[in-house]
Structures are given as structure tokens and as C-alpha cells.
Specification:
Largest sheet: none
Order of helices and strands: HHHHHH
CATH architecture of the largest domain: Up-down Bundle
Shape: rod-shaped
Structural class: mainly alpha
Distance between the termini: 67 Å
CATH class of the largest domain: Mainly Alpha
Number of helices: 6
Number of domains: 2
């Protein structure tokens, strides 16, 4: 008869389920960590795009303020306009440098920043020239340079380049926002999946623990029964050994008694034999029986061998 398999395939499969669930939880946790990092990167790029848009807006406002201050000075001749003009004009190179650093990762915008820097420099040169004419007393020539020169075209160039950059950043913002949204959804799904797997793993672990506890209790009961049987067998064996010892004692007593009886019979045989001889001699009238009496006494009093 074929012996039963102590570890049938189904039992082995159930025992491996917690390990499988644990591996799945570890994989999903790794995916969650990866998605979380990707989401952080996308959010960082979204913030970066917003920073670029803010920098473009601040640069455009500075250019417009510089031109407005230049126009105010040309019209009024008040030195306050020049003072504020110079203050705003000093900030433009730093703003252009900041915008260049923010867009250094994008080749298209990097080229746009180069073109924007050249357009702003041309516009500043024009504004500086008009202010110089006005300060020299040539107010009409200064106004004419604004009305008849390429001032508007240069302003349009600056605005056009910044609008192009806004369009690029708008597309990037939309793309990165979509990517961040999808990554967020994927992250939420992965977290939910990890939670379900963790609950499943915990349930299986609890079930396996309960099963192991039941098996341990059964094994303990079987061991207790075996131990009780062994104790009973030991008691029976002790009783049997005690009986054997009693029998051995009885046998020794019997042997001793038999030996004594044998020796006693030997002594009696000597005594009886001599008495019989005495009896026959007396019947014949033979008075010489002393030797037989002595032999009988020696047989009766002789120590056992």
C-alpha cells in the first residue's frame, strides 16, 4: 500500500501563498516608490514651467516700464523719470540671465532667449539714444526718433519673442500637467493595490498562523497521548519486572529448601542405615553395636557439605 504524502501539492501551494503575496506586495511597493518619484519629478517640472512663465512676465513688465519711463521723460523732461528708468534698466540683464538659466534645458527656448536678449539690447539702445537727445536739449529730435524710427518694430520683436516663449511654456505646462495627473492616478491605483495585497497577505498570514496553531495543538495532544502510553508501558514493565524478581526469589528459596532437604535426607539415610544394622544385629543376638551407634551419631551431627 502506497504511503500518504505528508506534504500534498495543495498543502504546499497554500503554504507558498503568503510568500507569493509578500513578493507581490514588495513589487507593488517598488512600483509605488517609482511612481512617487516620477510624480515628484513631474510636479517639479510643472513648478519649473510656472517659474519660467513668471520670469517671462516679469521681464515683459520691466521692458514695458522702461519704455513708459523713457516716454514720460521725453514728454515732460522731468529727471525723476530718468532716475526710475535707470533703476529699471539695471534689472533687465539679471532678468535675462535668470530666464536663460531657467530655459537652458530647452534648445528651442534657449535660442529664443538669445534672440530676446538681442532684441532687448536693441530696444535699450534706442531708448538710451532718445534720452540722450532729450538731455542734450534736442527734445524735438528725441521725439522724432520715437515717432519716425523703428521703435515700434523693436517693441514688437520683443513682444513676439516673449509670446513665442509663452506658447512653448504653455504647451509644456499642459503636457507636464497631464503627465502629473496620470502619474497621480497611477500612484493612487498602485497604493490601493498595495493596500489590498497587504490585507490579503495579512489574512493569509493569520490563517496560516491559526492553522499552525491547530497543528501544534494536535501534535501536543498526540505527544501527550504517546507520553501517557509510554508511562503506562513503563508501569506495566516495572510490575512485570517486580513479578520476575519475586519469582527469582521464590526459585532461590526453593533451591535453598531443596538443598537443605537433600542434605537432611543424606543425614537421615546415614542414621536410618545404622539403625537398621543395629536392629538386625540385635535380632541375631550380636552385642557389638557400638560402632553402628557412633556412625549414626556422626551422621546425625555431621555438618552439611
Amino acid at each position: 500500500m502506497k504511503e500518504a504524502d505528508p506534504n500534498p501539492p495543495k498543502a504546499v501551494g497554500r503554504a507558498r501563498l503568503p510568500v507569493l503575496f509578500g513578493a507581490m506586495v514588495a513589487v507593488v511597493a517598488a512600483i509605488v516608490a517609482l511612481l512617487s518619484q516620477l510624480q515628484k519629478d513631474r510636479e517639479a517640472w510643472v513648478r519649473h514651467t510656472l517659474e519660467v512663465q513668471t520670469a517671462i512676465g516679469e521681464l515683459g513688465n520691466s521692458v514695458y516700464r522702461v519704455e513708459a519711463l523713457e516716454r514720460g521723460y521725453l514728454i515732460t523732461g522731468a529727471d525723476n523719470y530718468v532716475r526710475f528708468y535707470n533703476r529699471e534698466r539695471v534689472n533687465l540683464p539679471a532678468q535675462l540671465a535668470e530666464l536663460g538659466a531657467l530655459t537652458a534645458d530647452n534648445a528651442q527656448e534657449k535660442a529664443a532667449v538669445v534672440a530676446l536678449r538681442a532684441a532687448v539690447q536693441r530696444k535699450l539702445a534706442e531708448l538710451d539714444g532718445a534720452i540722450a537727445l532729450r538731455r542734450a536739449g534736442a527734445a524735438d529730435a528725441a521725439l522724432a526718433s520715437v515717432k519716425e524710427g523703428p521703435s515700434w518694430d523693436r517693441q514688437v520683436d520683443v513682444a513676439r519673442i516673449m509670446d513665442q516663449m509663452r506658447v512653448i511654456e504653455g504647451r509644456l505646462l499642459a503636457q507636464r500637467t497631464r503627465e502629473a495627473k496620470w502619474l497621480n492616478l497611477a500612484l493612487l491605483f498602485s497604493v490601493a493595490l498595495a493596500g489590498l495585497l497587504t490585507m490579503g497577505f495579512a489574512g493569509l498570514w493569520v490563517e496560516q498562523a491559526r492553522k499552525a496553531g491547530r497543528e501544534l495543538q494536535t501534535a501536543y495532544q498526540e505527544l501527550s497521548a504517546t507520553n501517557a502510553e509510554l508511562v503506562s508501558q513503563m508501569a506495566s514493565r516495572a510490575a512485570a519486572e517486580n513479578q520476575v524478581r519475586q519469582m527469582q526469589k521464590m526459585e532461590a528459596v526453593g533451591q535453598l529448601t531443596g538443598g537443605i532437604a537433600h542434605d537432611f535426607n543424606n543425614m537421615l539415610a546415614v542414621v536410618i542405615g545404622n539403625l537398621n544394622l543395629i536392629q538386625r544385629r540385635l535380632a541375631k543376638g550380636d552385642p557389638k553395636i557400638g560402632g553402628f551407634v557412633e556412625s549414626a551419631l556422626e551422621g546425625a551431627t555431621a555438618p552439611p557439605p
